[in-house]
Specification:
The complex is a heterodimer of chains A (622) and B (177).
Chain A: E1 21-26, E2 30-37, E3 40-43, E4 53-54, E5 56-59, E6 65-67, H1 69-73, E7 82-84, H2 94-99, E8 119-121, E9 124-126, H3 128-147, E10 153-158, H4 164-176, E11 181-186, H5 187-199, E12 203-210, E13 215-223, E14 226-235, H6 240-252, H7 263-282, E15 285-290, E16 293-298, H8 299-324, E17 333-337, H9 344-354, H10 367-379, E18 389-391, E19 398-402, E20 406-411, E21 419-425, E22 435-441, E23 451-458, E24 471-477, E25 483-489, E26 495-499, H11 508-519, H12 521-552, H13 558-576, H14 580-593, H15 595-610
Parallel strand pairs in A: 1-10, 10-11, 12-17, 14-18
Antiparallel strand pairs in A: 1-2, 2-3, 2-4, 5-6, 5-7, 8-9, 12-13, 13-14, 15-16, 19-20, 19-22, 21-24, 22-23, 24-25, 25-26
Chain B: H1 8-11, H2 22-36, H3 46-67, H4 69-79, H5 94-109, H6 117-144, H7 147-175
Helix pairs in contact in B: 2-3, 3-4, 4-7, 5-7, 6-7
Classes of the chains: A alpha+beta (622), B mainly alpha (177).
Chain lengths: 622, 177
């Protein structure tokens, strides 16, 4: 028996039992989950044997949450309660979301505007983190059923070009779904791992990843098991969806406009456009037959429609090559990832730009999930990590606001992470004791053109003449690409540290509350019941007031009538938005407002019955 | 195990010269990544993980500094206790300064669309070849111990880099980024 177990720093711990960890590709249109099965990474299927889980969630009025194919199929039938492509909304403000093409069919919760923007559904308000968590939960259930055990962690992939807010919200969603995140892994890097380990190739490789809603390009050097990302670039609002949208817009211009304004009609048209796009992958020309409109569409015409989108992808490639200090001749291979790279128009543009045909022998849908699974297996400790090492970069520059609302870059884009950079600042007024810092992310010169990550204040600077205090601020980006900031005043050592929380992220308390809510499944049913009861009671009050106004409206002053009507309108709004507590509050408010009116009616009726004076009647109130 | 007390050259077992063996730098970098990357400590204690993040961040900074000729030059001067954060006019060659200003004006006057790209490309080549000459000069003067001259050349390299990034921004802008 060993009395002492001595472990050296960096030494390998004793080999533990096989632990369950998965890789999750949380995609805009489809999601996948993979795990190591008998030493090989496999994509885990659902009960019907299908691998892709459509990233679509439907919230039913009875509280049931439907994820995947069934939800996707009901999108046209129930567009307002069926949420698709939610990944595009992670880390975004309501204004940004509302401006996106496919937001038209949803209603936003006005009460949630200030926090994470939320959509109104039959089962209450749902924000993008909650919807993402529901997709993750469904994948975890699938994995636990397949692997017959409890998961200990997951590697979740994100577009390389995701900013801090988008990364943080992905982590929040995982936490809400009860999944421990081993690592957020950039999607093209994951694909490169799957490809590189499989092909044993050495050299310089471009991963061109056009998914449903996001686009990434990464340039990697693969040498002796080290996968080093040299540069990455992309567009988190460009994907296969946009090609569908461009085609749908083209069709809409040719189809009866009146008929195509309805939300459900838009969904159908979008799905039709998607189908045409797929058919064009196999045929040079397709027939169009939609709502009485007949015509045809050739590949060349489709290429014209998509030209601006294709150009954006190639420009991104150009920029990534430049960031890495490479030219197209340095590239040994181009790997295509993401379902949208099946489009011939993309393959041709890529081949044209790089001067060589891209590799198409890996399954573009599965590569990311497989890479995530490999990394999960390593990070949980099942697999020796000697096989490979991943070195990734931060996709966007980090900077701070300086005088004149200009950005001073602290960590430029495409710096290998983890990274720490310290910068010294000083006071600019005599006796200045506090200093505020504003951290932004982006490439532009003006603060207003970048994304604000955090503002914080360093207090307790000892009063000195201007320029005498020395404040050192250290920016640390961890291996997940998330930032923390430490500020210290060097003469006194006063120190403050913050973990950056994105402007539209959730705070820890909110996550905890949501966690509790999601753990207690019973409480969901209770909530639904509470909602129903509140709605019914509110409707009864409204009906009664209208009946009273019909009968004795002359007892009301105009101003009283107006305020009662306003209260009714507000209550109806709350009923539609399915908020039980708000409904109750407004119901009480309405009761209070109409109380005098009810009392007067009571008086009138009693008087008319008995012919007595008011004074002799006991006051009756509600 | 490496330590953050080592300077960047010591970290990579390299002599503190401007001319370095790029292959040796890369090979040692991969070796040190294997030792210090946080992924190597994913099942370690919190303390080990924090330590790995610190060491690995230091390694990344060191590698980026030595890999870039401009940053490497600046770092060498810093190791000699030369102040490089402040530049005065006498640190610079006035002819070079004038030339820079003219080039900058020229960039601003170019048409604001992709018809300007070939001209920008040509300017970039010019700046790059000038940079190459400056690097050779820096290496000579630094190893000869004429640090004052080396400092002046370093600042000129900084200006050329600034110009280069302005040309590249001009290109990006015209490519519609």
């Amino acid at each position: 028996m060993a009395l002492l177990q001595i472990s050296e720093p960096g030494g390998k711990p004793a080999k533990p039992a096989h632990r369950l960890a998965v890789g999750i590709d949380l995609g805009t249109t489809n999601s996948l989950v993979s795990a190591s099965c008998g030493g090989k990474i496999e994509i885990l299927p659902d009960d019907d044997g299908s691998y892709l889980l459509p990233s679509v969630v439907r919230y039913r009025a009875d509280g049931e949450i439907i994820v995947g194919n069934e939800a996707k199929q009901s999108a046209a039938k129930d567009p307002g309660n069926t949420i698709a492509s939610v990944k595009r909304w992670l880390g975004k403000s309501q204004t940004e979301i509302a401006a996106s093409d496919h937001a038209a069919r949803y209603q936003f919760d006005p009460d949630r505007e200030q926090q994470a923007p939320a959509l109104v559904t039959a089962a209450g308000s749902k924000d993008p983190v909650q919807v993402s968590a529901d997709i993750l939960r469904s994948l975890v259930e699938r994995a636990e059923a397949c692997l017959k055990g409890k998961l200990e962690g997951a590697v979740i992939t994100v577009p390389a070009y995701f900013n801090d807010a988008q990364r943080q919200q992905t982590k929040d969603a995982a936490q809400l779904a009860g999944v421990k995140v081993l690592r957020l892994l950039n999607e093209p890097t994951a694909a490169a791992v799957a490809y590189g380990l499989d092909s044993k190739e050495q050299g310089t490789v471009v991963v061109f990843d056009l998914g449903g809603g996001t686009f990434d390009v990464s340039l990697l050097s693969l040498r002796q098991g080290v996968f080093e990302v040299l540069a990455t670039g992309g567009d988190t609002a460009l994907g296969g969806d946009d090609f569908d949208q461009a085609l749908a817009d083209y069709l809409r211009a040719r189809i009866d406009k009146q008929a195509s304004e309805e939300a459900s009609e838009l969904v159908v048209l979008h799905q039709y456009a998607n189908q045409l796009k797929h058919d064009l992958g196999e045929n040079d020309s397709v027939d169009i037959d939609f709502n009485g409109y007949r015509g045809s569409l050739s590949r060349a015409e489709f290429a014209d429609i998509c030209e601006p989108l294709v150009k954006r992808t190639i420009n991104t490639c150009r920029r990534v090559l430049r960031d890495a200090g490479k030219t197209t001749e340095d590239i040994d291979n181009i790997v295509l990832v993401g379902g949208a790279t099946r489009m011939p128009v993309i393959r041709e543009a890529v081949a044209d730009y790089f001067g060589k045909a891209p590799l198409t022998d890996i399954d573009p849908d599965k590569a990311v999930a497989v890479g995530a699974g490999i990394q999960a297996d390593v990070l949980i400790g099942n697999k020796s990590s000697d096989d490979f090492l991943l070195l990734d970069v931060n996709p966007l520059s980090l900077g701070i606001e300086t005088m004149g609302e200009l950005v001073e870059k602290i960590i430029p884009r495409n710096t290998t992470i983890p990274v720490a950079k310290a910068q010294e600042f000083t006071t600019f007024k005599d006796g200045q004791t506090a200093m505020s810092l504003h951290v932004v992310q982006g490439e532009r010169e003006l603060v207003s053109d970048c994304r604000s990550l955090a503002r914080f204040e360093l207090r307790g600077i000892p009063p000195m003449v201007a320029g005498a205090a020395k404040i050192r601020v250290t920016f640390q980006v961890d291996a997940d690409g998330l930032l923390s900031v430490i500020a210290e005043e060097l003469s006194t050592g006063s120190k403050s540290e913050i973990q950056i929380k994105p402007s539209y992220g959730l705070d820890a308390d909110t996550i905890e509350q949501m966690l509790q809510a999601s753990h207690e499944h019973a409480s969901e049913d209770r909530d639904i019941r509470a909602l129903r009861e509140a709605q019914i009671e509110a409707q009864q009050i409204i009906d009664a007031i209208y009946a009273a106004i019909d009968a004795d409206g002359e007892l009301l002053e105009e101003s009283e009538k107006a305020s009662i009507e306003a209260a009714i309108a507000e209550l109806r709004g709350a009923m539609q938005e399915s908020k039980p507590i708000r409904i109750q509050e407004l119901s009480e408010e309405l009761n209070r407002l109409s109380g005098d009116f009810a009392a007067r009616r009571m008086d009138l009726h009693i008087r008319s019955l008995q012919g007595e004076s008011i004074d002799s009647v006991e006051p009756i109130g509600k | 195990m490496i330590s953050t007390d080592q300077n960047f050259f010591q970290l990579f077992d390299l002599a503190a010269h401007f001319e370095i063996d790029a292959d040796a730098l890369d090979a040692r970098y991969r070796e040190l990544q294997n030792e210090t990357h946080p992924d190597r400590f994913s099942s370690g204690t919190e303390q080990e993980k924090t330590r790995a993040v610190q060491l690995n961040s230091y390694l990344n900074e060191a590698y980026a500094t030595l890999k870039s000729p401009l940053q490497r030059a600046g770092y060498l001067l810093k190791l000699q206790d030369v102040e490089i954060d402040r530049v005065s006019q006498q640190d610079l060659d006035m002819d070079l300064l004038m030339e820079q200003m003219q080039l900058r004006e020229k960039i601003a006057e170019l048409p604001n669309d992709d018809s300007a790209l070939p001209e920008l490309e040509k300017m970039k080549k010019d700046v790059l070849s000038k940079l190459e000459q400056q690097r050779e000069k820096f290496a000579r003067d630094f190893s000869a111990g004429t640090i004052d001259v080396a400092k002046r050349i370093f600042h000129e390299m900084q200006f050329l880099h600034k110009l280069l990034s302005e040309i590249e921004e001009g290109e990006e802008h015209r490519l519609g980024y």
